[in-house]
């Protein structure tokens, strides 16, 4: 039994080794064949790409040449454009000089005509330019003549209008002076008759063209309601004014203006926010009373000045009393 097992273990392995080696050789040969084929096809591809690269290089060279040609052409065009712009600027400057100076146009025309006579040769462009200059000169002369004629006509109209205005002003001044004189006459008559009616009351005085009532004569302190004496005084004023109005011609355009004034001490009552409101309310009260007693409403006007037009700038009771007043003005509208 041990001998039999030893015999089985001593098997010959050489044939298997030869088969494996042969298989390895075949694989190597196969790989070499694949490598050779790959080298062949890679060479073909690389040679094709090289050809494509050469073609592309030639196209790039052609494009570069075209680009150089285009660049030179652009440079030439830019130079021509700069030259054209310079020529345009020269022409514009020349045209401006032509439009601004008539004498330059005439001198240039004479120069062109002298050159034409001396050289006996001039281009069509020069002839057209000379003709254009001549037409421009004639047109400017015609325009100058029209402007001169219009200016002379305007000056003649101005002189005529000034004469009319001067004459109208003189007549207006004469008429105004007559109306003022006539109004002054009725104002004097009105003040004279009013003084007789009202008497020599210490609270009533005449100052220039104004008839002045002290506020205490008409109103209570801080009030815009007429007292009993105030109502009576305003009724007398209305009656006198109506009598005077009956004798006035229709052409005398008069108006009776009532101005309210206060002193500078601030208001303490809550009814009137300031002296402005109080002075205005008092003037309107007098106006309404006059209208209620028959004075035409279109002949009455009222204004309030508060403490801003004093007749006495003192800080005492006498000054305050003078400044608290109602002024009646007989005036022209």
Automatic annotation (TrEMBL):
PROSITE patterns, alphabetized: OMPA_2
Coiled-coil region: 53-80, 123-157
InterPro entries: Bact_OuterMem_StrucFunc, OmpA-like, OmpA-like_sf
Signal peptide (UniProt feature, chain positions): none
Keywords on record: Coiled coil, Membrane, Transmembrane, Transmembrane helix
Transmembrane feature ranges: 20-42
Lineage, highest ranks first: Bacteria, Pseudomonadati, Pseudomonadota, Alphaproteobacteria, Rhodospirillales
Protein name (database record): OmpA-like domain-containing protein
PANTHER family from the UniProt entry: LIPOPROTEIN YIAD-RELATED (PTHR30329:SF21), STATOR ELEMENT OF FLAGELLAR MOTOR COMPLEX (PTHR30329)
Domain spans labelled OmpA-like: 207-333
């Amino acid at each position: 039994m041990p001998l039999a097992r030893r015999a089985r273990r001593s098997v010959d392995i050489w044939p298997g080794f030869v088969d494996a080696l042969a298989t390895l050789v075949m694989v190597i040969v196969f790989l070499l064949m694949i490598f050779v084929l790959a080298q062949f096809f890679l060479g073909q591809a690389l040679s094709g790409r090289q050809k494509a690269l050469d073609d592309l290089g030639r196209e790039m060279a052609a494009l570069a040449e075209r680009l150089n040609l285009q660049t030179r052409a652009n440079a030439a065009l830019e130079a021509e454009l700069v030259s054209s712009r310079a020529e345009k600027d020269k022409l514009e400057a020349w045209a401006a000089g032509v439009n601004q100076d008539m004498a330059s146009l005439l001198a240039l025309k004479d120069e062109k005509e002298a050159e034409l006579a001396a050289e006996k040769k001039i281009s069509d462009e020069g002839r057209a330019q000379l003709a254009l200059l001549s037409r421009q000169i004639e047109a400017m002369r015609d325009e100058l003549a029209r402007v001169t004629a219009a200016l002379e006509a305007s000056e003649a109209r101005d002189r005529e209008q000034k004469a009319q205005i001067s004459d109208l002003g003189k007549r207006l001044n004469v008429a105004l002076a007559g109306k003022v004189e006539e109004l002054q006459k009725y104002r004097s008559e009105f003040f004279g008759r009013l003084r007789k009616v009202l008497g020599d009351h210490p609270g009533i005085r005449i100052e220039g063209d104004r008839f002045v009532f002290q506020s205490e004569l008409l109103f209570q302190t801080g009030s815009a309601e007429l007292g009993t004496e105030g109502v009576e005084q305003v009724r007398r004023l209305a009656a006198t004014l109506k009598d005077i109005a009956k004798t006035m011609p229709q052409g005398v355009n008069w108006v009776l203006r009532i101005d309210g004034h206060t002193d500078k001490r601030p208001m303490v009552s809550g009814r009137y926010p300031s002296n402005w409101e109080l002075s205005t309310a008092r003037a309107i009260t007098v106006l309404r009373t006059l209208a209620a007693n028959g004075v035409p409403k279109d002949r009455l006007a009222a204004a309030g000045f508060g403490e801003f037009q004093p007749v006495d700038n003192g800080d005492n009771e006498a000054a305050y009393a003078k400044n608290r007043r109602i002024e009646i003005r007989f005036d022209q509208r």
